[in-house]
Amino acid sequence: MRRNDPLTARIPQADKADRHILYQRAVQCVESEIDMVDETFRKLRGRDAKTLREDFCGTANTSCEWVQRREGNRAWGVDLDQGVLNWGKTHNVDPLKGDAAQHVILLHDDVLTVATPPVDMVLAMNFSYWIFQTRELLRAYFSRIRDCLVDDGILFLDFYGGYESMREMKEETDHDDFIYVWDQASYNPISGAMSCHIHFKFPDRSQIKQAFSYDWRLWTLPEIRELLSEAGFSQVLVHWEGTDEKSGEGDGIFTATEQGDADAAFICYISAEK
């Protein structure tokens, strides 16, 4: 029987872990996300989308899922962090089968100024656009995105809210080999400014503290809808998740509605049509 290297055995699990892999496992479900935007675009526009721009793309996980859906799909991923773009290219883009890797273009650039071909859809997910903390700056971003869409293009956003979103709290989610910790570290109810972190804990009690950190403004749905309308979008819809009758939990089906439930915490999608 081969014995474990005692030196390797003593290395804390946190030191051997890759924070980007952990993030993708704990936070993202790109398959469901692409299902939602693809089906919604088809329903609203009566055709399949082919081109997608992923703003604040990080590891470009969503872009990679998109180009694998249909032959001819193309994606542009935009992010200011060159390091995470490099990681995404090595771990997500390059391993794609066939010529799919050639259909993902990663751009180290600012979403406010980057130049890309007009696209069918722009996605700004994981609440990344909350980095814009004034109405003027967020409206400028939305206006810029509208200009980057084809004539019948759609911007998709995700959003979270509910009264728990204003609490300073930590929430732990247990995965097979680690614990994901969402840390709402601070919130200023006067300005809406909030600071959040993601930590990871491991069975050997080692941790990656502040693996990711965010300084955001906690926006409200009415504010986002108003700013999108002010930016010139013709129709702004909120897509609310249904409830499974047996479990009482979300069923993963998002439907456009004007009436939401006053839940302690919720996640929904927003579509803004050019």
Briefly say what this structure is.
This protein is of the alpha/beta class. It has helices at 6-9, 13-16, 19-26, 30-45, 61-69, 82-93, 135-148, 221-230, and strands at residues 51-55, 74-79, 104-108, 119-124, 149-161, 169-174, 179-187, 193-201, 207-217, 235-243, 250-257, 266-273.
Offer a few descriptive terms.
single chain; 274 residues; 2 domains; globular
Task: Produce the secondary structure layout.
Elements: H1 6-9, H2 13-16, H3 19-26, H4 30-45, E1 51-55, H5 61-69, E2 74-79, H6 82-93, E3 104-108, E4 119-124, H7 135-148, E5 149-161, E6 169-174, E7 179-187, E8 193-201, E9 207-217, H8 221-230, E10 235-243, E11 250-257, E12 266-273
Parallel strand pairs: 1-2, 1-4, 2-3, 4-5
Antiparallel strand pairs: 5-12, 6-7, 7-8, 8-9, 10-11, 10-12
Helix pairs in contact: 4-5
Task: Give a written overview of the molecule.
The protein is an alpha/beta fold and 274 residues long. The protein has 2 domains: 6-15 and 164-216, no CATH class; 19-160 and 220-273, Vaccinia Virus protein VP39 (Rossmann fold, 3-Layer(aba) Sandwich), CATH 3.40.50.150. It is built from 8 helices and 12 strands. The chain has helices spanning 6-9, 13-16, 19-26, 30-45, 61-69, 82-93, 135-148, 221-230; strands spanning 51-55, 74-79, 104-108, 119-124, 149-161, 169-174, 179-187, 193-201, 207-217, 235-243, 250-257, 266-273. The strands form 2 sheets. It has an 8-stranded mixed sheet. The chain has a 4-stranded antiparallel sheet with strand order 6-7-8-9. A hairpin with a 4-residue loop joins strand 6 and strand 7. Helix 4 (30-45) packs across helix 5 (61-69). The longest helix has 16 residues, at 30-45. The chain is globular and about 60 Å long. The mean pLDDT is 94.
